[in-house]
Write a structure and sequence with these properties.
alpha/beta, TIM Barrel, Oligo-1,6-glucosidase, domain 2, Immunoglobulin-like, 3 domains, five-stranded antiparallel β-sheet, globular, disordered N terminus, binds 1-deoxynojirimycin
């Protein structure tokens, strides 16, 4: 196996932050009150097909992830979440699973997976795998069997098959729309070409929804979970965790286009049904049984998209999921009041359950922060030189100062912007194809990572004609990991320094947050009683809330001021705070 070179750390440290010995300190607090690792963990999301390619086919794979583990260790994250690597026709890049207990040959095999877990654990990194219980692939043996079986058969009862409406059953059973566009129902065709029943798919037709009212489904997933737990995983990221159950009568929705319009799961008949909570209780028990066997804490972190933080909180009750991504921070515009509003809501509703908030600013479904935060005046410089880059750095420092856990999406630590000019013919996102080429939303954040060199493939893949599965822009040259590691002013060093401080300062991670008075465009808060974080969302400099130089800042920060689009952390005793 040849793996593209992963640059080594030139052992430079940012002048903005001292080099902190790599150990989880806060000794007094931790010795007396050991907390499960996930409560304040920072997890790196690996989108496997775009991380690092070891085989030269232009697609990242598990051996590539394994080769990149030392890089993640150096960055200072606590673990990694692997996007789906299971056998799949890749209609939705693995979120269409054909076999839940194997590895797609494109990504490797089970032996490679085992080596990856072993090496990650040796480096002290947790491994979280993605599990997709709401739907499977139309290539899954269950669905093939269902298509071949008669209406009303046990094989069809594993999915939602129904007769159509209209004189000849030519209309879908209800008016629901799929999240990615188009009707949520597809009609089957018999071997002789005659149209038959319809089946439900809340995403693409290649992702039929499983019927969770059939107990066989729950039993199958408990076996799947056990399979991966026995292979040593530390947890599961649960896809569409507010899904699974539908209203038992599958009635028409009063606002059928709501999901499609918002790309949020808001149809109250298709999502967030009360029965789903029992599934999370049984999965929690399974994880706790595994912990009882070997003493290792496991994590269930859900992708929970529900309308309010209060509904979100129901998913992280003490006997349900350990955590759920809090997407409201990601959705907040670059405004102090918007950020403060979602932070307050999360701390009130979610932390109140006893869980911790799971913060996220980027993932494989969203436009990257560097592009999202760029001011609309058109300075969305692809290389991040406009306002977007500095604001993304400031937002990262803010997120990493909040109480709870955080997820960092690959490339975020390199300051990658969204690739906005991918030609139509290379786009693979089903959202693009199912919305009549209207929404170009998810390919631009999935472009393979730049590791080294000056031209594509930037060390992502090796071999003479190797081409990354999505083309990389020339400006990626300024964002390779090689350059980032060598430049103490890079995004990478900011993340690394922040992660080191998070591990070393007793005030970060879990614990209290107290807001300080600040001008309207500024957020400032104290963590514990010793760390102040302030972010200037405005367009001009403001006085810093703390006298003296910051421990860490997202940009130059001198003379007691906090420049526009900048965040900083100060260590101080309470009397040093100028509020
Ligand atoms: C959420 C995942 O993050 C997304 O990538 C996927 O397309 C949908 N769930 C459907 O599985």
């Amino acid at each position: 196996m040849t793996v593209a070179a992963v640059p080594s750390d030139p052992a430079t440290a940012s002048p903005q932050a001292p080099v902190i010995p790599r150990q989880r300190s806060a000794p007094a607090a931790e010795l007396h009150q050991p907390q499960p690792w996930w409560r304040d963990a920072v997890i790196y999301q690996v989108y496997v097909r775009s991380f690092l390619d070891s085989t030269g086919d232009g697609i990242g794979d598990l051996a590539g992830v394994r080769a990149g583990l030392p890089y993640l260790r150096r960055l200072g994250v606590d673990g990694l979440w692997l996007s789906p690597f299971y056998p799949s026709p890749q209609h939705d890049h693995g979120y269409d699973v054909a076999d839940y207990c194997d590895v797609d040959p494109v990504y490797g095999d089970l032996d490679e997976f085992d080596r990856l877990v072993r090496d990650a654990h040796r480096l002290g990194l947790k491994v979280v795998v993605d599990i997709v219980p709401n739907h499977c692939s139309s290539a899954h043996p269950w669905f093939r069997e269902a298509l071949a079986a008669a209406p009303g058969s046990p094989a069809r009862a594993r999915f939602h098959f129904a007769d159509g409406r209209g004189e000849h059953g030519e209309l879908p059973p209800n008016n629901w729309r799929a999240m990615f566009g188009g009707p949520a129902w597809t009609r089957t065709t018999g071997p002789d070409g005659t149209p038959g029943q319809w089946y439900l798919h809340m995403f693409t037709p290649e992702q039929p929804d499983l019927n969770w009212r059939n107990p066989e489904t729950g039993r199958a997933f408990e076996r799947i979970l056990s399979f991966w737990l026995e292979r040593g995983v530390d947890g599961f990221r649960i896809d569409v965790a507010a899904g699974l159950f539908k209203h038992p009568d599958l009635p028409d929705s009063p606002d059928p286009y709501a999901d499609e319009r918002t790309r949020d799961s808001v149809n109250p008949l298709a999502w967030n049904q009360p029965e789903v909570h029992e599934v999370w209780r049984s999965w929690r028990r399974l994880c706790e049984e595994a912990t009882a066997r070997d003493g290792r804490e496991r994590l269930l972190v859900g992708e929970v998209s529900v309308p309010t933080a209060a509904e979100h909180a129901a998913y992280v009750r003490p006997d349900e999921l350990h955590q759920a991504f809090f997407f409201d921070l990601l959705a907040a515009p670059w405004e102090a009041a918007a950020f403060r509003g979602v932070i307050d809501e999360a701390l009130r509703d979610i932390a109140g359950t006893g869980s911790t908030v799971t913060w996220v600013l980027n993932n494989h479904d969203q436009v990257r922060t560097v592009t999202r935060y760029a001011s609309p005046s058109g300075d969305a410089d692809p290389s991040g030189a406009g306002t977007g880059g500095p604001r993304a750095r400031a937002a990262a420092l803010l997120m990493l100062a909040l109480p709870g856990a955080a997820y960092v999406y690959q490339g975020e630590e390199l300051g990658l912007a969204e690739v906005l000019d991918l030609p139509d013919e290379v786009l693979t996102d089903p959202v693009f194809h199912r919305t009549g080429s209207r929404l170009r939303v998810r390919d631009g954040c999935r472009v393979p990572l730049p590791w080294s060199g000056h031209v594509s493939p930037f060390g992502f893949t090796t071999g003479g004609d190797a081409r990354p599965w999505l083309p990389q822009p020339d400006w990626f040259a300024a964002h390779t990991t090689e350059r980032a590691l060598a430049d103490v002013g890079s995004f990478w060093h900011l993340y690394r320094d922040a992660l080191q401080l998070r591990r070393s300062l007793p005030h970060l991670g879990e614990g209290s947050l107290r807001w300080l008075d600040s001008p309207p465009d500024v957020l400032a808060f104290v963590r514990g009683d010793g760390l102040v974080c302030a972010v200037n969302f405005g367009d001009g400099p403001v006085p810093a809330p703390v006298a003296g130089p910051p421990l860490l800042s997202s940009g130059p920060c001198a003379d007691g001021t906090l420049p526009a689009g900048t965040a900083a952390w100060w260590s101080c005793d309470p009397s040093g705070v100028l509020d």
